Amino acid sequence: MTHRYQIILVSLLLIVNIGCSDKNLKKIEGQIDAEGAGEIRLGKTYSEVLSKIDETVYEVSPNDKNGFQIKKDRKTIISFWSKNQDSTIGFVKVLSDNYQTAKGLKVGDSMDKVRTIYPELKLLFDEMDGEYYFAPEDLQVYNKDKPEILCLFYVDSKEKNIDFEMNEKTDRFESSMDIEGIIKHVLIYKWK
């Protein structure tokens, strides 16, 4: 085999290898569950995720929490950061309707749709952020009645005077979901 044919053969093998590799993910969006969203999973290292993202499709940049945000068409679709200042993903924040749960909930959905899927769900208030959210039980992970992974859906509502009552069992302020609004973002994180 001549040198010219060897170069052609090696080039073809490289092209086939690159084409079959999952190195450059053209689509990172997908399902929201208790472990993450799409290709962004709790417990993965930054390098595991970032090394596979196709930067011809997505724009990756640092976020304000010592992690990263990913944009598509100039809009932030997802952001992630660590829990303990290591390089392991501990928080995932979904900001795009390109991700959805197995039951079909996604960013931008109305509270009417939420009530249809989860009629008994209660609205909660995050005192630290001053925001309303709900937490579907089928997307939470517990270990001996203590939260291990939480998946919280934050709500954008123009209503400001929502009546909350203290639930003695959960030690949280809760309200009915009878408000108007939409899902603003989803936050998935490890509690510990």
Give an overview of the whole structure.
This protein has a single domain (32-190), classed as protein yfey like domain (protein yfey like fold, Sandwich). The protein is built from three helices and 14 strands. It has helices spanning 3-20, 46-50, 111-117; strands at residues 32-33, 36-37, 40-41, 59-62, 68-72, 75-82, 89-94, 123-126, 131-134, 141-143, 146-156, 165-167, 172-175, 182-190. Strands 4, 5, 6, 7, 8, 9, 10, 11, 12, 13 and 14 form an eleven-stranded antiparallel beta sheet that branches. A three-stranded antiparallel beta sheet has the order 1-2-3, with no helix packed on it. The longest helix is centred in the N-terminal third of the chain and has 18 residues, at 3-20. 21% of the residues are buried. This is Lipoprotein. It comes from Algoriphagus winogradskyi.
